[in-house]
Fold each of these.
Amino acid sequence: MKYNWKLSETTFTKDKGNVFSCFACGGGSTMGYKLAGFDVIGANDIDPKMADVYKINHDPKYYFLESITTFAKRNDLPAELYDLDILDGSPPCSSFSMMGNREKGWGKEKKFREGQAKQVLDTLFFDFIDLAKELQPKVVVAENVKGLLLGNAKDYVRRIYKEFDKAGYYCQHWLLDASKMGVPQRRERVFFICLRKDLAKPFLYQKDMFTVVPKLNLEFNEKPILFKEIYQKGNKERLLTDFSKKIWDLRKYTDVGFEDINLREFNKPNLHFGKKFIFKNKVMNTITSKDDCVLFDEPRHKSTLENILGGSFPKDYNFLKVKHQYLIGMSVPPLMVAKIAEQIYIQWLSKI
């Protein structure tokens, strides 16, 4: 499995088990499961534009364009969804992101994208657990941001564990970095991975004096892929504006981004907070939905191909009319999920 690949040149074996993906976005996690040999039989999301992108690239057997709250309450789901190997989901995470409002936004309704119903984002995780309780897949995988483990958000983690326990699962979580998993991007994400209790006996061990969990080793230490390995020389897709170029000209090697320049040169803190520098001899910054990062050596933003490679998306992915940087920034890197799914199969599912 490599970050530089194409859908049209890849054979998906579909022999490792069935997966259903919730909050599927453009299909980042779906591609990861497919690369690991799983058959992703369907998906759910609330965004019509993302649904169009997902369908044209993956042609799912089942697709439900609706909120997870509505989907979890359905009583007409296909029988195949009650016999899943993995139920996957990436509940919207902006409520817990260190880049967002965090506590100020908890419990409040938010209209996440045009055309969507208002939702209380920090409760959607528990709707997802309700779905798991109903469908009873062998394994549940839920991805979220690092901020979920920090500060007051830890109370949500405790509740997540409690609700998974009530749903019939042993739950564990890992903080993983995509840059150690063959992805040319620094991207830390939390993965909650849960095994159904009636299947767990062969894998149980005592984690500490009080906690018994099914053993799963998720240690990844692959060699980092530096930005220079995906750098596209001479690209002029997204050159800086004249205004931004004047700020860029004042950069120093000690600057992390435009914020440092604005503070030093103009005494304006927190201005252009998202405009971080990308250095050729370092791993690329996390790709965000706004993707405002700037090359240190050239007055431009990343190119389309640099974002695609950095996100481990296939080079022939059809983004339709959705901005590629938004979709990739909102998605789990396919290669990251592929490495996790591979280990879930090797260590658990192949032995059940």
Amino acid sequence: MRLLSLASIFMFANMAFAQQPASDQSLKINGYFDSYYQYSPQAHGPATGTGAPYIEGRVFDNLHNQVVMNMVELSVTKKTEEIFFRVDLAFGQQVDAMVTNGSIGSTTGQPVGADAEPTRNITQAYLSFTPKEMPRLNVTAGKFFAFIGLESFKAKDNWQYSRSFSYNFNPYWHQGMSVRYAIIPDRFSAALFFINASDGRLSQEANRSPSTGVNLGFSPSEGWTANYNYLGGAETATPNSRREVHEVNTTYQITPQLAVALDYAHGTQKNVLATGEDGSWWVADAYLKYQPVSWYYISPRYEYLDDSDQGVGLSSFSSAGGVKQKIQGLTVTNAFQMSNGLELRLEYRNDRSDKDTYFKSAKGGTAKTQESFTAAALYGF
């Protein structure tokens, strides 16, 4: 199991499409199930009313002392010599969080506003075309997961169960199109993205300006992949409030048992703060995966988020409002391959801020640290 960015997955998939024989008319149906239970000493209830206790800064796994059916998905794909079609239908807590970008309801502790998104339960639906006469070229249009970042939407495609702050504050999906060309097959490809907005939520589109993206995908040798990604566009109704992100990531399989991955991103947004000033942030993540036997691996992740300029806008994830801060996080995941696609993950996570105004205590006070203990069951076929 390897950690790959969505851009890498697109690159290798597009190359694979071009190599399919003309007789391949395959239709496939796949399924995915994700459920978790989590305990956190810092979990607290909503500001008012009733609802499940939750913790700060987490999008897809923020509930405490609940057995959560996080997501169930059915995926249908159809592949011919030149065309690849895919549609994913998904339901659950994670889908609602994806639609609302993790906003927390003031009375329920749950994501709000999901019903306003017309494509909320279609997590992906795209058509990909690779012309027979130009097998290095691929054009994809529709709704697809975001290309920027190292982690993926589905926990089974990541080494950890919880997502990093880097993933949480990046876009989750796009609606638009991409054009990719394999400059050196199996080694180097370039892609342009033309998308409606940085995040593909039509219900929350704030202006008429599209966003654009670039991916440069490298595979210098077997077991080594690297990507440079750029994403930029106007993201609010505020004039001249352009948001731009530059990101690089790499994954390297050192031995059959040991792999490492690194991710770094720097972002800016103009005219975003209340004072009219520009905001900026940067984040770095380091991953290690050691798999001594086929049925078990252990994977630590260290992350560092510098949002001292408040460019990320953590206020959308915190009932305390925006906080200029720096966060460090350490996550350790133990994964057990149980049987026929069933996987169990046990995870410990500790996040620490240099300010005591973002994380909370169980009684609603403030804290500098936040811990969680998670057990998750993943199944795919």
Amino acid sequence: MFTNPVVGGVQLIRNAIQSVNYVPGVSGWAIFRDGTAEFATGTFRGPVVIIDPATGTVLATINANGQASFQTVEAKDYTINGVSLSATLSAIGKGIVGQFRTSSTLPNPGTSSSFVNTCWTQFIYDTARTYRISATTAEFKNTASVADSNLMARAVFNQPGLSGGASNEIVHLTRLSATAGEQQGLGINFYMSGSSSRTIGGSTMTLQLSSDDGVQWTHQDASGTNIFMWTVEDVGPLITSIGNTGTPSGSLTYVVTYTALASRSYDGSGNYIGAPDGDNNIYVSTFADRPYTNERFEVIFDGATMRSDLSGATFTYARLWLYCFKAEEANGSVRFGVTTDTAVETVLNDSNIVSQTWADDDAWPVPGWAYFDLLSSQGGHTTLDEFLSFSGNGIIAQQPFPHGVAATGFRGYGTNGFRPYIEIKYTGNAPSGGGGSGYGTGGYGTQGYGI
């Protein structure tokens, strides 16, 4: 009927039907007799199913709700909420990339600096990554009857067969010392990275052991219950170096402690109370069993170092920590003052007091640590400001008139481990580390509370 039909019945007679603007891979559409087709875009109102033509197995589906299921998905990258998935994954560690483990006895170390290859593991080294090399603790014994000895352990990195690869590069060395017959645990933990004399590719990390003096050591974990592991772990990319040698500078946050340099107790007339309580213990107010009436105390700190460290700082907290060991009753009131004294006096001179701050009717733990807040403000100044702006060097304490309701005893400079100290957290320049100051919390007061 038709001289050149497109279809005969329901079959496509021509090789293809296509739009007038069809250009393969560019524009238009086409449907071919072999079952293939090309379209610019498409809309499906039902599910899409992809089937393996040879087996009939469903390889992938997209249902009418937009949920997809695939066998595998390959892509150079995915972006989720503007964040590259590839970049995120590359910025984290890959975990363990090489490991040797055994429950058997390790070979005995060599002697006289002749190193024995104890164990090794393979891994793929990447110059842009950072690696942690570790060994679980293994017990070795100095078998000598009389001699002291040193066990030498070293990690050796090697890239056999790689052009330019590292050849037997010693990347770590440690030493154990033991007396005759003594047993020591060998544990290794270090990091390595970079490309110095190394390249990308297959590598080995070997543990070698020797004694440096000819004395034989033996591995003691022979029971089969102690599994020894020699591990290489990828911990992340080699980032740009941040920092420098020496003391850091700039607006960093520090916690610094200033330990008391001296302390003394004084009687009601301001006269120094001698041994044993002149330095070891310091008191406020009057105890019935002590003949010194209304006692006071003075604690000296290195104010010059504090002023140098804290110049221009922004403070998070500043605390005077005291260890209370005795109180007449549960609540002990204390009035603190800042003095310009650089050393404790024989007679306390009130003219050197540049400020007074009240801490009224506060509960001191007995026994225990507690702190007075040096950032509390009285008369427009904080107690810390009196140290920094008014040449303060010490703290005096006495009963707060007219409240003298309780006598309180604290440990003083003479009781090591319980000495008063000032703890300050601030943002600013690095502390000098002198004058009794140091990094980190003082190790005291963590079970105490604030006054």
